[in-house]
Amino acid sequence: MTPAGVKELINSGHSVVVEKDAGAKIGFSDESYKLAGAKILATAKEVYQSEMIVKVKEPQPIECEYLYNSQILFTYLHLAPEPILTKSLVDSGVIGIAYETVTDDKSNLPLLTPMSEVAGRIAIQAGASALQMASGGRGVLLGGVPGVGPAEVVIIGGGVVGTQSARMAQGLGAKVTVLDINLDRLRYLDDIFQGSIVTEFASQDAIDRLVLTADLVVGAVLIPGKQAPKLITSKHVKSMKHGAVFVDVAIDQGGCSETSKPTTHEDPTYIVDDVVHYCVANMPGACARTSTLALTNVTLPYVKKLANDGLLNAFGENTGLLNGLNVYKGKVTNAAVAHDLGYSCEVTENIMQDLMNDIGIRNIS
Fold first, then answer.
1. Based on CB atoms within 10 Å of each CB, which residue in 41, 42, 86, 363 is the most buried?
2. Distance (Å, whole) CA 135 – CA 118
3. Which one-letter DSSP state was computed for residue 148?
4. pLDDT single digits (tens) 301-345
5. Is the pLDDT of residue 28 over 60?
6. What is the model's pTM?
7. Quick one: which of 75, 117, 114 has its CA closest to 97?
8. What's the first-to-final CA gap in the chain, in angstroms?
9. Angle of helix 160-171 relative to helix 113-130, nearest 10 degrees?
10. Is 112 helix (H, G, I), strand (E, B) or coil?
11. What is the pLDDT of residues 206-228, one digit of tens each?
12. Which domains does the chain have, with CATH numbers?
């Protein structure tokens, strides 16, 4: 949350605590948070005594120890590929609302969109860097130069991530192909790019064919709440060009390649069968200032709604926010997560009834 976001909540009558130096590296000093009305606390453990936790990344193992029953946790969760984290949240009794499954009235994912925009653009920056010789790549410049052809970029998935990746790659002069199973989406992409990229239906044959000739492949697949399907096999990777690059933006949902495993910003790549893999979880963290500003823009209205009105009213008036509920007091409430991890799914009608029984207890002061 930015200092401006803190000020909004303070003006609405709430108290806000921020961990020391939380925003220091991106230009938000402790003093700027204090001026906005926040109290600075020395440790995460102290911050986690709050009634509602607002953050970006899912709680880390040490943070899970601080969670308590009926506390609200509002953040990205990506639980489908995370059985240990899910169990920790269930055992804690926390009320976990996941940014990535909140919907709007058109069934879009408004709290995922800005980070998908950032990740899609970073995917091309990271891929271009990984293609350089020093990174183990094949030494190809995305846009080529006069007399030398551009790199071939294949993007699997034409949603927000895929669209932003295509925009960046096309802008750098690469030859871009986007694959998707939604023909309406392909028509939309063909329209906005005015024929400057190639669109193709994401059949198995198309994936088999195009991955093998690509210099850079971007995995931009998303099935909301569920683990990403493994569309790139180890056989594909073995057959790719030596020094080609695969950027897996779907890694937060388990990755869309059999060869994918999460990496970090400090050590972002590894090589399998001479193919450079960039599989950084939380890719937007590479551009944390831009990401923080973009995320606060979309999350703050929901934070204010929860804080001002309490869970019962917030959920009752906004079913899209209710769709963000993934765990509730020891129960899994997201059908996709429950299916992938073997839990029974508690229906939202029961949750609303529980909230009605608890009315007045969970309003945040």
1. 86
2. 22
3. B
4. 999 999 999 999 999 999 999 999 999 999 999 999 999 999 999
5. yes
6. 0.89
7. 75
8. 18
9. 40
10. coil
11. 999 999 999 999 999 998 888 99
12. 1-47 (no CATH), 51-102+292-365 (3.40.50.720), 113-281 (3.40.50.720)
Q: Which two tokens stand for residue 254?
A: 């388990």
Has residue 168 got a pLDDT over 60? yes
How many C-beta atoms surround the C-beta of residue 182 within 10 A? 14
Cβ pair 205, 174 in contact under 8 A: no
Catalytically annotated residues:
78, 252
Site of tokens 């992409």: 189
Alpha-carbon distance of 87 to 96, in angstroms, equals: 12
User: Hey, what amino acid is at 332?
Assistant: V
pLDDT in tens, 47-64: 999 999 999 999 999 999
The tokens of 31 are what? 């003093």
By residue count, the chain amounts to 365
Backbone angles phi, psi at 176, to 5 degrees: -115, 135
What are the pLDDT digits (tens) for 233-283? 999 999 999 999 999 999 999 999 999 999 999 999 999 999 999 999 999
At 162, which helix (H) or strand (E)? helix 160-171
Residue with tokens 């996941």: 98
